[in-house]
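@channel sequence for tomorrow's demo:
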Amino acid sequence: MIQRFIELGEGYSDLYELLDIAERAAGRISQFVALHSAGGTSCAVILHPTETGSFQPIYVCREGIPNPYQKENERFRMFQQAAASAGKPLIELEVKPSSQFAEKTLYYQYLIGILRLNHYLRPL
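structure tokens (generated this afternoon):
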């Protein structure tokens, strides 16, 4: 199985695209995830794997939203509402910021490891 982050942007107007993907793929949604760090909050939607090819996309807006526990914001409320509308709980995790990694690829591998360890993603 291939599990891959697909970065839509850094959470400003890209969050609207993430919410649209979640709405259009409502039947495929596995999880709504908020990854909080010192760099901001990343909002992600994990879809179920495709039947053909076993590809599991994780759409993400990386660290573009202020941490809602430090500063309330409307974008995070919209993400919470999308999870509630889809009937899915919002999973919130504290992670390292992407700035601590030399490459974004390493950062996303780190996040996939965390999601697998917590059983939010299937093991390979």
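heads up for whoever presents: DSSP finds three helices and five strands in the chain.
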